[in-house]
Amino acid sequence: MSPTDLINPKSTLSGDKPVLKSTTHWFLSLDKHTDWMKDWIETGKLEGEQHHDPKEWKNHVLGQCRSWITDLQPRAMTRDLDWGVDVPQELEGAEGKKLYVWLDAPIGYISATKQWALDKGKDWEPYWKDKDTKLVHFIGKDNIVFHCIIFPAILKAAGDYILPDNVPANQFMNLQGAKLSTSRNWAVWAHEYLEDTKDTITNHVDVLRYVLIRHMPELKDSEFTWESFKELNDTDLVGKLANFINRIIVLTNKYYQGEVPDFDRKLPVISSEGEASTYDAQLAEILKKVKECASFIQQYDFRGGLKTVMALSSLGDQFLQNNAPWKTVKTDPENVKTVLHLGLQIVGALSVIAQPFIPNVADKIRGLLKLPTLVNGDWNALEDKLSKGLSIVQTGSVINKPAHLFTRIDNKIIEEQIAKLGQGQEEEIKYPELREEATFEDFMKMDIRTGTILEAEKMKKAKKLLKLKVDIGFEQRTVVSGIAEFYQPEDIIGQQVVLLANLAPRKLRGVMSEGMILMAENEKGELAFVSPKDGFGNGFTVR
Fold first, then answer.
1. Of 27, 136, 5, nearest to 72 (Cα)?
2. What tens digit of pLDDT does each residue of 158-167 get?
């Protein structure tokens, strides 16, 4: 919106009206990019070729883009500011001009890539100019227009840069029933959380990652609460994921001294759904979940991917429960070998697909299985093994002893984190709005005099009113003042004040009041006397 489109604009702090001034700016001619940008946004085509599939973009991202491309206007790319990045000074008229932040900031993505490539001895250009490179912006919804309209226009105008393949912008996350506010300290500061919980919450980094992903505002605004933080830790991470993995590790150590048992893959087992099944059929179910998780990640649906991780864990837990090896270990020991061997394959698969979400715990799961640290390509290798019916955790290998991956969180820890919200910062002060403009002549009509309170007493049947006798030098006045909630009569005898002396007399509760004591009122509604310095004298004017 142009400032000239505002109706009766004024400063919320001073009440002053803005003053229009002439200046010179450089503009990005977005209107010249309308045709190709409409095609790019609506169909995903760029210069006649399919660039991306717009159906893969989130609806709220497309919605914002469409609202802009219907009427693209030239946009100023410079500002008259004291701070910021200078417009190149060799340009005529550039003195004092700064670059608009959303012109400069995205270009910084490219310069940062250049610096990284220089440090690593790599070529930066393929990352920004190769058609096989996929450019994706992970941002918040308040920055959609800059990454979907302004930056692409700049890249297209440059001529040889790739454009974003997707901009999976998240919406907003609230905190404990209110919007995040760093000024009010209504926020969870990562460094403070890490310090506070390093000795009290097991794998505290991954717990926070898990909860944030579960609440990620991918399609609509969401909310983080410390109560849900504890609930998700206790129910999901402890009660489901860690519990299943621990049971498999414990039983393997108990029955086979930690050695992965050999088994007969032809023996029947009971599926997680309680039906007769086979080892190979259950491997296919694991593969299905692994592919499902990968698909969610590729669609930037990270909540969906994480839920699939937990679904695989639940599948394994139900499979274990239905086969109950602790009941059949003596009557059908061969079946138990098959069940636990398959259970270890599920744990092995979890160690891979959990890595994008809870990487530290994923590494610890692999440590329990004595599997090597994950490297690029291991996800594809996992799918390949499962599709061929191969084991992830090999027969005859020896696993480690069980270890706690997550533990329940004490209520006291949650209470302490909630209590921290809003602490250490002054509350935002809401100042009263300025009244309508007054002239100097209006002010000069008021006769404000210095005075001293000689007597004070409470008014009958009036909790807020005090009856005062005020000396204004040349006479004494009776004044009724609404300050009884803040001052006792005996405490204000001798208090110097300023009095509006020419205010028309008014009867209050049967007493004629001959003026008004001027008081200051803060944001809490507390009153304080406005007075000259001690010994100033009575009856003198305030001007």
1. 27
2. 999 999 999 9
